[in-house]
Amino acid sequence: MEHARLQRNHIDLRQLKMFLIPCSCGTTFAVAPGFDHKGTGWSRYLKCPGCGKRHDPKNRLLSIGYQREGYWRVDNC
Description:
Layout: H1 2-9, E1 17-22, E2 28-31, E3 46-47, E4 54-55, E5 62-66, E6 72-74
Antiparallel strand pairs: 1-2, 1-5, 3-4, 5-6
């Protein structure tokens, strides 16, 4: 019974991903992988929380994934 409960609560760490967007102002911010699946075409441009500059995320995304060892690492760089 305990084993079944642990399996239900287990998170596949390979599924934990996010994208980092570096800005020229020095701020780097993150978005979830599915950020562009909702909203209109205008919403795909992401606003930097530091300076307000809009970014087209299709140009400069760093894909990072969570590693089993307990840290985030850049994928496919």
